[in-house]
Write a structure and sequence with these properties.
mainly alpha
Length: 242
């Protein structure tokens, strides 16, 4: 019969492998727990961070492309507006005067009587593409149109005063210059027997018309320069919120 010591020793010998196995199982469980609660979350966070970073880069690239497209579009909108209002507000669309109707305006008179500031403002109000601009850009375009309108109105009024003065008094003192075609017309008048007084009157009238046409040309040249300014106007910076 085994002694008590031997029985305890045998029990310990059986328990040691079991405890070792349990310890290994516990260590595995602890490792698995640590892996699940530390390593895996860190890996998942790294994956998420990488995806977020990629999406941020893609978003930045998309935003840049959108801003570049919008910048091109607003420049095209300004150019289109300048193209539309040029003929409408300069008098170029004025039909030929109807000689049968008293008071019918010719192109020169219509051009100098057109309130450019009001015309540009009215055209802007009905300009369909205006709604495609952001509020800051709408304000910028409106301000540019207002400034150009004010400037051209001042130039127009000065030109109209000079134009009317020529009509009332004839060309300024000095050599009376006429175009080659007018010179030919005067030569024809001379051949058919026009008097010296008639020749002098016709010469002064043609010279006055030439002077008036130069006044109109200077005004329209300034109008054209300002339409170029409108086409190439400076726009506010584009913000990401837009």
């Amino acid at each position: 019969m085994k002694s008590r010591f031997e029985q305890v020793l045998a029990l310990v010998e059986r328990a040691v492998p079991l405890l070792s196995h349990l310890a290994q199982v516990g260590l595995f469980a602890l490792t698995a727990w640590g892996l699940f609660h530390t390593v895996i979350p860190l890996y998942q966070k790294a994956v998420v961070d990488e995806q977020v970073a990629k999406q941020q880069v893609q978003l930045a690239q998309l935003t840049q492309r959108l801003q570049e497209n919008y910048d091109r579009n607003r420049k095209l909108i300004a150019a289109e507006f300048a193209r539309l209002v040029g003929p409408a507000c300069s008098g170029l669309l004025t039909p030929a005067p109807d000689q049968s109707k008293p008071g019918s305006k010719d192109f020169y008179t219509e051009a100098l009587d057109t309130d450019v500031e009001k015309c540009l403002s009215d055209q802007l109000q009905v300009f369909a593409a205006l709604k495609d601009l952001t509020k800051p850009d709408q304000d910028a375009l409106s301000m540019q149109v207002h400034q150009i309108g004010e400037h051209l109105n001042a130039v127009r009024l000065t030109a109209r005063m000079e134009y009317n003065l020529i009509a009332a008094t004839g060309p300024s003192v000095g050599p009376i210059l006429v175009e080659r075609s007018a010179q030919q017309a005067l030569a024809t008048m001379k051949l058919i027997g026009a008097s010296d007084q008639q020749m002098a009157e016709a010469t002064r009238k043609m010279a006055a018309q030439r002077k008036q046409s130069l006044v109109i040309k200077e005004y329209l040249d300034e109008f054209t320069r300002n339409m170029v300014i409108l086409r190439s106007m400076s726009w506010p910076p584009i913000t990401s919120s837009e």
